[in-house]
Amino acid sequence: MRARAAAVLPAMFVMLGLAAEDLTPREVVEQTASGMQAKLQGRQEYYTDNLDQLYEVIDDILLPHFDVRLAGRMVLGKHWGSATGDQRNRFIDVFYTFLIRTYAKGMLEFDQDGLTIFADQQPPTENRAVIRTELQLDDGTRVPVNYSLRKSSKGWKVYDVRIDGVSYVQNYRSQFNAEISVRGIDAVIVRLESETPDATTEGEG
Known about the structure:
- The chain is built from nine helices and five strands, in the order H-H-H-H-H-H-H-E-E-E-E-E-H-H.
- The protein has one domain: Nuclear Transport Factor 2, Chain: A (Roll), CATH 3.10.450.710.
- It is an alpha+beta fold.
- The protein has a five-stranded antiparallel beta sheet.
């Protein structure tokens, strides 16, 4: 999952720019698929050498349309209930920054021409929706990538992505659960903070 995600998850971020609050889930995906690509077009080499600025671009486009708090809560799983408010907030902040920095470089190689957005197979419920897409990798492999969205007070927001049937939330929950069980949540937060400095994003919902 992690190797495949490294190639595919950048597409998740490309899909999330500039959406208005009244857009449907599919419109959020469809109308913003080129948002990040437009920002990066012709500047890949520049951003390769200036990753801090790339992180800022991703943050500006991603944060308004990503349910940071819900994703962080789902990743913490059973540890959410025993975590203090401060631990929850610190984990959410650093997990969001961790995602951006983990996949930023892959975004420079993402080609939106390889993306197919499928028509809705079923209408969204009152506050949940799944948008199905497919991404063609450089080797010709086609990978299903499905986006889960939640309707918040600020419009539809993505909180999970399934790559080839595997949820990134579940993937990271398994990864962090094992580490938290052995080392404790504070140790995991400190490790992530040391690897992703300036994790100052405030979770929104």
